[in-house]
Write a sequence for this structure.
């Protein structure tokens, strides 16, 4: 059984060098609808769980090759369409929204900073429930302070910022002008951090966090149900 | 997803250990790649079906998918160990 795996969408340009092989060595194909281009492969479905990691890296490399040259709208690895007619209907229904987002994000990349508790730096205070909660509150305030310091330090670089709190820490997504990634890294890494916290910087990534909601979860009008 | 269970399929670096890809220019961890390709970007609306061991598992969201696949894979491993005994 095969499915249509879509890697990313972008504005077509003759200068772009496109990848030829995708997940599980499937040929990468190009579907263009006016200005919008989509890279896709026909893949065996379901994926073999034994090579899921490799599939993820292969998928990432296809998207990354295009992203290095231009703005892209990345798709998710486990999101596939039934067949070519469904893909065509999907692309036609969403072309305009995709192009609007590509236009809005064309000069930007997504940089990230994650703040999380440093492993084993501070022993957990188990002397009482109150002591434990106080320790947690101090750690939370400290983390919030550092997150704010990070945002302040990159304010001059950021077009937009999103912050998400997760169980593993605070994740800060910053929309940065392409070419200013090192400025971002430099600004963030010069902030002193408390010993009980760690910081990790990554990017550039496609600006997936800043896609409009209609693009993140696009409509399926006229398309067969995705599986 | 940083400290979640790993999908125990092939040699994998420690959490956030870096891995060179794309000709060695960019250093990025495998966990970050997995996180981005599974959790970021366009999700095609509709239910998603993943078959594992001949059983179709239906999920509604990609965040749910990752956790559930990990759990499913973990369960499969346990089953495999049992069958080897």
């Amino acid at each position: 059984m095969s499915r249509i795996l879509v890697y990313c969408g972008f504005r077509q340009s003759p200068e772009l060098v496109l990848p030829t092989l995708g997940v599980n060595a499937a040929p990468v194909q190009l579907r263009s609808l006016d200005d919008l281009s989509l890279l896709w492969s026909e893949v065996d479905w379901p994926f073999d769980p034994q090579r899921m990691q490799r599939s993820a890296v292969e998928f990432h490399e296809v998207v990354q090759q295009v992203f290095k040259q231009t703005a892209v709208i990345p798709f998710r690895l486990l999101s596939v369409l039934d067949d070519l007619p469904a893909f065509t209907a999907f692309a036609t229904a969403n072309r305009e929204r995709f192009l609007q987002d590509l236009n809005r994000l064309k000069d930007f990349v997504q940089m990230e900073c994650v703040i999380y508790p440093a492993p084993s730096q501070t022993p957990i205070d188990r002397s009482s429930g109150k002591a434990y909660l106080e320790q947690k509150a101090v750690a939370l305030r400290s983390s919030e302070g550092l997150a704010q310091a990070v945002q302040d330090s990159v304010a001059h670089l950021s077009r937009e910022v999103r912050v998400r709190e997760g169980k593993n820490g605070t994740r800060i997504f910053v929309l940065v002008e392409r070419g200013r990634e090192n400025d971002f890294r430099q600004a963030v890494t010069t902030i002193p951090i408390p010993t009980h916290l760690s910081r990790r910087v990554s990017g550039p990534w496609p600006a997936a966090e800043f896609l409009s909601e209609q693009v993140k979860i696009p409509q399926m009008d006229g398309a067969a149900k995705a599986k | 997803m940083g400290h979640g269970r790993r999908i125990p399929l092939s040699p994998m670096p420690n959490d956030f250990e870096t891995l060179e890809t794309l000709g060695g220019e960019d250093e990025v961890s495998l966990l970050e790649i997995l996180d981005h390709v599974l959790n970021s970007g366009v999700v095609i609306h509709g239910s998603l079906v993943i078959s594992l061991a001949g059983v179709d598992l239906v999920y509604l969201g990609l965040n749910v998918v990752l956790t559930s696949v990990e759990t499913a894979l973990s369960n499969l491993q346990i089953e495999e160990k049992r069958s080897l005994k």
